[in-house]
From TrEMBL:
<feature type="binding site">
    <location>
        <begin position="99"/>
        <end position="106"/>
    </location>
    <ligand>
        <name>ATP</name>
    </ligand>
</feature>
<keyword id="KW-0234">DNA repair</keyword>
<keyword id="KW-0863">Zinc-finger</keyword>
<keyword id="KW-0378">Hydrolase</keyword>
<keyword id="KW-0346">Stress response</keyword>
<dbReference type="InterPro" id="IPR041166">
    <property type="entry name" value="Rubredoxin_2"/>
</dbReference>
<keyword id="KW-0067">ATP-binding</keyword>
<keyword id="KW-0238">DNA-binding</keyword>
<comment type="function">
    <text>DNA-dependent ATPase involved in processing of recombination intermediates, plays a role in repairing DNA breaks. Stimulates the branch migration of RecA-mediated strand transfer reactions, allowing the 3' invading strand to extend heteroduplex DNA faster. Binds ssDNA in the presence of ADP but not other nucleotides, has ATPase activity that is stimulated by ssDNA and various branched DNA structures, but inhibited by SSB. Does not have RecA's homology-searching function.</text>
</comment>
<dbReference type="Pfam" id="PF13481">
    <property type="entry name" value="AAA_25"/>
</dbReference>
<feature type="short sequence motif" description="RadA KNRFG motif">
    <location>
        <begin position="257"/>
        <end position="261"/>
    </location>
</feature>
<protein>
    <recommendedName>
        <fullName>DNA repair protein RadA</fullName>
    </recommendedName>
</protein>
<dbReference type="GO" id="GO:0003684">
    <property type="term" value="F:damaged DNA binding"/>
</dbReference>
<dbReference type="InterPro" id="IPR027417">
    <property type="entry name" value="P-loop_NTPase"/>
</dbReference>
<comment type="function">
    <text>Plays a role in repairing double-strand DNA breaks, probably involving stabilizing or processing branched DNA or blocked replication forks.</text>
</comment>
<comment type="similarity">
    <text>Belongs to the RecA family. RadA subfamily.</text>
</comment>
<dbReference type="Pfam" id="PF13541">
    <property type="entry name" value="ChlI"/>
</dbReference>
Length: 459
């Protein structure tokens, strides 16, 4: 006898299920519980069970007997996208890309789809948000002549999508977006936790069995995080995030998870009328406004993935008009800024208790790591003391709570990039200076051991 459907309440933030409605979920979200029906599997349905003798028993394999080989990758035709993916799309992989509305997700996807269709074969573009005519208009604008191997499907039913994919047998599949898809086996609305989970499982099965790379577009919440349950991020092989200001042209593509490459790599693009264009010299674009003799502006460097990146740190100090000084940081972690200010006051006798401090990373980039600590401290000191900084000076190093400077990784490659960009003086930890073997002829290294010595050499 078939069981009756039962009702559960599912949190739309974390996926927690409860038999009763809760005002606040265990994850802390309020009013996030939505009623959903769970249709149980019929025990008499032979499709839901596999008898012990009908299928071959599973057998474990010794690790040393497993043959290893290189992953087969597809060239997307976009060098920066290939860089973030680790060299291209891996056959049978699932890639999740997210970003705010209007950031350029659909644009970069249609550009990659057009190239793959011309080079490899059939590509299936499934859209649940736009009509075929809208996609055609974008493709004509950013791709020009599209290939006859690029197929469009305006559908939200996952069973129909799987049927079309099995019949077409494409080389690449795009789902735009996962929040608009639904499966008939679930009795909940599209975009709910149950539907996103079920559709994600169907796409994973389709991609892995047919060995087809799948690109999935996902929405983001108001806080910028991926909407839907975290299980989708666990299912996919790669999670990409597209960031940037919609009123600016710069777009940064970063990998948060990658089973076939590094997660420290970033890709840089410029949004134009004809689509997203790659930025080959990203450091140059970040340093365009850096001038000589300006107060509160210091060049810094970070190492992102496989390349050094030079950027500009700006700081401004102003007397506070209220009882508590304001601390504002854009691109730099606020807790990190407060620590640097405490070290400046305690170890270098730079009192900023009655000063509002504003720090900004030019270009909207949020650098990872701590190699920008010294540049932040020098920029604040330059603005507070009114001492102009040199546009040919670069600073890098991590500041410890004791005021000492810690060494940074990949320093030698950063120095070579700085010399190529025209910097003549680099302030860095003394430990890095002693370890560097090859110093460019036009670059002078200034090794310092603590923050007090760095401020003395900077001034």
């Amino acid at each position: 006898m078939a069981k009756k459907p039962r009702t559960v309440f599912v949190c739309q933030e974390c996926g927690f299920e409860s038999a009763k409605w809760l005002g606040q979920c265990i994850c802390g979200a309020w009013n996030s519980m939505v009623e959903e029906k769970v249709i149980p599997i019929n025990e008499n349905d032979n499709r839901s069970r596999v008898s012990a003798g009908s299928e071959k028993r599973a057998k474990a394999t010794k690790l040393i007997e497993v043959k290893s080989g290189n992953f087969s990758r597809l060239d997307t035709g976009i060098g920066e996208l290939n860089r973030v993916l680790g060299g291209g799309l891996v056959q049978g992989s699932l890639t999740l890309i997210s970003g705010e509305p209007g950031i350029g997700k659909s644009t970069i996807i249609i550009q990659a789809a057009s190239h793959i269709a011309q080079k490899y074969g059939k590509v299936l573009y499934v859209s649940g948000e736009e009509s075929e005519e809208q996609i055609k208009m974008r493709a004509d604008r950013v791709c020009g002549n599209t290939s006859e191997n690029l197929f469009l499907l305006a559908e939200t039913n996952m069973e129909n999508i799987v049927a079309v994919a099995e019949e077409l047998n494409p080389e690449f599949i795009i789902i735009d977006s996962i929040q608009t898809m639904y499966s008939e086996i679930m009795d909940s609305a599209p975009g709910s936790v149950s539907q996103v989970r079920a559709c994600g499982n169907e796409l994973m099965k389709l991609g892995k069995v047919k060995n087809i790379p799948v690109f999935i577009v996902a929405h983001v919440t108001k806080s910028g995080e991926l909407a839907g349950p975290k299980i989708i991020e666990h299912l996919v092989d790669c999670v990409l995030n597209f960031t940037g200001e919609r009123n600016q042209e710069l777009r940064i593509l970063r990998s948060f998870k990658n089973r076939f490459g590094t997660t420290n790599e970033i890709g840089a693009f410029e949004m134009r009328e004809e689509g997203l264009m790659e930025i080959e010299n990203l450091s140059k674009s970040f340093l365009e406004g850096l001038e000589d003799g300006v107060e509160g502006a210091v060049a810094a460097a970070v190492y992102e993935g496989t390349r050094p990146l030079l950027l500009e740190i700006q700081a401004l100090t102003a007397p506070t008009n209220i009882g508590f000084a304001r601390r504002t940081a854009l691109g730099i972690d606020l807790s990190r800024l407060n620590m640097i200010l405490a070290v400046l006051e305690r170890k270098a006798n730079v009192s900023l208790i009655n000063q509002d401090v504003y720090v900004n990373v030019v270009g909207g980039l949020k650098p990872e790591g701590t190699s920008t600590d010294l540049a932040v401290a020098l920029a604040i000191y330059s603005s507070y003391k009114g001492k102009p900084s040199s546009g040919k000076t670069l600073a890098l190093g991590e500041i410890g709570l004791t005021g000492d400077l810690r060494s940074v990784q990949n320093c030698e490659r950063i120095i070579k990039e700085a010399g190529r960009m025209g910097f003549s003086q680099i302030i860095l930890p003394q430990k890095n200076v002693t370890a560097i073997k090859d110093i460019p002829k036009n670059v002078t290294l200034i090794g310092v051991s603590n923050i007090r010595e760095a401020l003395a050499r900077f001034s």
